[in-house]
Amino acid sequence: MLRRMSDMPAGTIGFEAVGEVEDDDWEETVEPVLRQEIAAGRDVRLLYLIGTAAREVEGDAMKADTGFRMRHATSFERVAVVSDEDWMRPALRALSFLLPGKARGFRVRDLADAKTWLAEDVAAPPPAP
User: Fold this and answer.
1) How many CB atoms are closer than 10 A to CB 64?
2) Backbone angles phi, psi at 84, to 5 degrees
3) How many Cα neighbours within 13 Å face the side chain of 54?
4) How many CB atoms lie within 10 A of CB 101?
């Protein structure tokens, strides 16, 4: 399953993979949040944590995310993927050339750095009237 993270910096969204992650998890948990952000006109700064609590991430879930990002490419400002899978960081570097915005991989031990990078230069929300 994918669980929304509550300890994210302002202006960012995070999801943690727990147990097995299937495409339905992405469609039911992540996609509605991203659609809401995009509809509100906000640039998306998204973090995925695939740490020790994750057992398996189904390929269809990753395809659903990639397809959504391609259809809404200009809405994603930054995407951070936090994982100790060795193939993840080079794959993100390759994909970052194909899509607007920035994508970067981090090791699980560098989760705090990923959150800092994700939140860099976030525009302050407008003052309340």
Assistant:
1) 19
2) -95, 10
3) 20
4) 17
Distance of CA 84 to the CA centre of its chain: 16
What pLDDT, in 10s, does the model give residues 79-122? Answer: 898 988 876 766 666 666 666 678 888 999 999 999 999 999 87
Look at residues 47, 97, 49, 106 and name the one whose alpha carbon lies nearest to residue 73.
97
Query: What predicted TM-score, i.e. pTM, was given to this entire model?
Result: 0.81
Query: What band does 26 get if pLDDT is binned at 50, 70 and 90?
Result: confident
CA distance 1 to 105: 21
- Distance between CA atoms of residues 77 and 43, nearest Å: 6
Task: Tell me which of 45 and 51 has the higher pLDDT.
Answer: 45
* Domains of the chain from N-terminus onward: 2-116 (3.30.750.24)
- CB-based contact 84:118 (threshold 8 Å): no
Sign of the dihedral through C-alpha 124, 36, 24, 96: negative
Question: Six-digit token pair at 54?
Answer: 């994750």
Tally helices (H) and strands (E) across the chain: 5, 7
Q: Tell me whether strands 44-50 and 13-17 are parallel, antiparallel or unpaired.
A: parallel
